[in-house]
Amino acid sequence: MNLSVEIGKIKLKNPVITASGTFGFGREYSEYIDLNKLGAIVVKGLTVKPREGNPPPRLFETASGILNSIGLQNPGVDAFIERELPFLKSFDVPVIVNIAGETVEEFVYMAEKLDIEGIEGIEINVSCPNVKKGGMAFGVNPDDIFDITRKVRKATSKTVIVKLTPNVTDIKVCAKAAEKGGADAISLINTVAGMAVDIDKRRPVFENVIGGLSGPAIKPIALKMVYEVVTVVSIPVIGMGGIMNYKDALEFLIVGARAIAVGTCNFVNPYCTVEIIDGIKKYMEENEIEDINEIIGSIKI
Amino acid sequence: MKARVLSNRGIASSVYEMTFEWKGKKPHPGQFLMIDCQGKTFLKRPFSVNDFEEEKMTILYQVRGEGTKNLSQMKEGDILEITGPHGNGFEILEGKRVLIVGGGVGIAPLLYLAKKVKAQKLYIALGFKRETFLVEKFEGLGEVVVTTEEGSTGRKGLVTSVVEEMIGEVDIVYGCGPKPMLKALQEISMKANVLCQISLEEKMACGIGACLGCACKVREDKGFSYKRVCRDGPVFWAEEVLF
Ligand SMILES: Cc1cc2nc3c(=O)[nH]c(=O)nc-3n(C[C@H](O)[C@H](O)[C@H](O)COP(=O)(O)OP(=O)(O)OC[C@H]3O[C@@H](n4cnc5c(N)ncnc54)[C@H](O)[C@@H]3O)c2cc1C
Ligand SMILES: Cc1cc2nc3c(=O)[nH]c(=O)nc-3n(C[C@H](O)[C@H](O)[C@H](O)COP(=O)(O)O)c2cc1C
Ligand code: FES
């Protein structure tokens, strides 16, 4: 049975990836699962300098999901290379690094720094605020997406993945901009912007007011966006958003995602990624499917 | 891991004690478990180890919302999904004069601590609003003082007043309870230059240190940083914490 898929130059043993920010740098989960079993690991979003993140509370449970306002807490790109990468290198699993710049130059700087052994791919997180343009996310502007992708593409020999935000009017335009900029793949969706209010204090739950919604609550939105994107680009798409089990994963694959990423579910069940891989295998056995690629994009409309 | 409920009973208004079979790792005092409370809850909920002996785990919990309400309705034989024990737990320094301080349902982790603390002399101060619970289980483990806000049982006032009186006679203080109480413990212990460990609470998602959702502010040489309550804590040296 073949479960392996290709994303740019990266060969994945299976299509199950961990979503950025939900798997740390792999350390914690290595106590629960064998990291070697994963298709790939995408690490927590990195910035040029270390970031402390937002004050608590940073989490709020909603109906079938969570709102988060972590604020990109991370040790910075240098500390990642020094302290976290050696650990990840000890496993036989492709490492994809998620980068979040505040300027185009910062994205390029990080892409160059991370063009080293032990890293297979760069995932550009365009959902962060563009400080030069008054804090609006890069990801809502197709010209910005094109520009960052093109410059990062030039700065690295690694597979370049552009991660799109769902908080836009037309995700297809953003996907096309990434493809035109030279992306090897597109991943989506990042969290859906949301809000919660404390009725006793009559204040937003988060100091930042707005948070990012993830988990099963966003799965139908994610699936629809992946479906839309695969119809307009020819590069591979990594689908994510609310995947909780192998059935959810299969929905994304059937719609046309070449691989899937599991995020919030890791918090609920630290074994879920491996369980999803096993579930996909079982489904293939039961349906006598030899190659995962027979499933990908097999939706009949 | 699956765990079978052995008993679940109310011991005060909206406070319950639940025991279940435990075949997992032996806990250290101050560690906690993440329990799937089922129903409409999505994330697991953190609960301290209240007691543990030979494959039998006990938690003490207060009904706060959906999750704890669901828990309170569980019966013998029901199956729970649990991960843990998580977190660092209290650092036990043998042969010291110890003061354990609990406020409300914050006394939960302190019973198991009191049993394992190996003190030269053990004082236990338990503070409640009105209704007291679990006090009898602490009797015999050390010298117990109880306070209630109106003086309905034990001494009248806040448990921290007991701490103020006794701080000169102890080497280390361990505390768990509401934030104002922990803040007072920090002030009293720092002023008296006595070691103090406190157990903090924050909303949690993963419980294992990956999501960075459970941040608490701690002092650093220059400024501050955020640590993870679930992994770096839940127990911190009081002087580190920035409330
Ligand atoms: C390390 C740790 C150990 C804990 N040990 C115990 C224990 O032994 N016994 C016990 O009764 N409770 C304990 N708690 C608190 C307990 O986890 C919460 O009361 C519980 O998650 C509430 O769930 P719920 O679904 O009933 O309420 P929700 O509907 O989720 O919330 C109801 C109320 O509880 C508050 N709350 C929710 N989650 C937390 C949390 N993680 N910490 C503090 N307050 C919260 C909410 O702000 C809200 O006001 C502990 C918390 C932590 C972080
Ligand atoms: C706590 C948390 C932190 C996240 N951090 C990042 C991040 O640093 N970079 C990023 O691109 N996406 C981040 N995400 C988004 C996820 O990678 C994923 O796109 C989103 O949560 C949807 O998938 P899910 O529903 O399976 O979680 C984060 C999500 C959560 C819940
Ligand atoms: S709850 Fe996820 S890091 Fe602490």
Automatic annotation (TrEMBL), chain B:
Cofactor: FAD; [2Fe-2S] cluster
Domain (FAD-binding FR-type) ranges: 1-92
Keyword Lipoprotein: no
InterPro entries: Cyt_c3_hydrogenase_gsu (IPR012165), Dihydroorotate_DH_ele_sf (IPR037117), Dihydroorotate_DH_Fe-S-bd (IPR019480), Dihydroorotate_DHASE_ETsu (IPR023455), FAD-bd_FR_type (IPR017927), FNR_nucleotide-bd (IPR039261), PyrK_electron_transfer (IPR050353), Riboflavin_synthase-like_b-brl (IPR017938)
Domain of life: Bacteria
Keyword annotations of the record: 2Fe-2S, Electron transport, FAD, Flavoprotein, Iron, Iron-sulfur, Metal-binding, Pyrimidine biosynthesis, Transport
Cofactor comment text: Binds 1 FAD per subunit.
GO BP terms: 'de novo' UMP biosynthetic process
Pfam families the record matches: DHODB_Fe-S_bind (PF10418)
UniProt binding sites for FAD: 45-48, 60-62, 67-68
Quaternary context: Heterotetramer of 2 PyrK and 2 PyrD type B subunits.
Family per similarity comment: Belongs to the PyrK family.
Protein name, entry field: Dihydroorotate dehydrogenase B (NAD(+)), electron transfer subunit
Origin species: Caldanaerobacter subterraneus
Gene: pyrK
